[in-house]
Hints:
Elements lengths: L2 E5 L4 H5 L2 H10 L4 E6 L1 H9 L5 E4 L8 H13 L4 E4 L4 H9 L5 E4 L6 E2 L10 H11 L26 E5 L13 H13 L3 E4 L6 H10 L4 E2 L6 H10 L2 E5 L2 H8 L4 E5 L5 H4 L5 E5 L8 H10 L2
Parallel strand pairs: 1-2, 1-4, 2-3, 4-5, 5-6, 7-8, 7-10, 8-9, 10-11, 11-12
Amino acid sequence: MTDILVIKLGALGDFVQALGPFAAIRAHHPGARITLLTTKSYADFARASPWFDEVWLDDKPRLWQPGRLLALRRRLRRGGFARVYDLQTSDRSSWYFRLMGGRVEWSGIAQGCSHPHANPRRDHLHTLDRQAEQLAVAGISAVAAPDLSWVRADAARFALPQPSVLLCPGGAPHRPAKRWPVERFALLARRLAEGGVTPVLLGTTAESGELDHIAAACPQARSLAGATSFLDIVALAQRAAGAVGNDTGPMHLIAAAGCRAVVLFSHESDPNLCAPHGRVSIVRRPSLAELAVEEVEAAMEGTR
């Protein structure tokens, strides 16, 4: 049996945009044993998927941690992998080519690898186009959109009144400019509730402050702060009438689930490079503080 390694470490939006490539790699190697090297945040989701036989965790050892580096090198070399698909294509993941001895077939950007994605404009391509081009170089010509029909999660246990719209007001804490002001989310929630739609607030425990603010302004809203796994988010998205959120990982999951979604972008990120695909409307302003609720409502109508 052929052993294949796929590397995808994060972040969430990038991981979701690798779902199509994951499926394409599995289809191209139907009889292979495929291992994913990822980080802890994505392990449960990956294990539930139909694409991998095994999931390994990468704790990202540092150069000053020789014991952990040697352990990683031993594990990678003992894996007996015939080919590696590096979908992370970072300096770190490319360095793993050297850890493995530089002799394995390798799809990525590591210097000297067998199947290099050498397009000098690769960083100017949308993530989905870049990955499809990389896999084409390695002989995989068909990369479809993500299919999340395999997801099994009990969204009914949240007992949410329907119809519902998912709101994702959070985002990377070190990039506050990517967030629409929470007061605008609160106003949007109130308007949804006035129209008979339940606003469902999604976010991590660390984002509970924003969700609490919205819930206080709109008592009809339901906050699920810290209560949802990635599988739960997919199941909720499959039942929701729509979703609105910042350029943040959960919105990629929601769009991949087929939910109509409005994703808000500021100058901090470029939708031409990373926007989720699907039933998606992109609204972009240099500063999200300039974005009015009425504009978001109009975009929601445009995704129907």
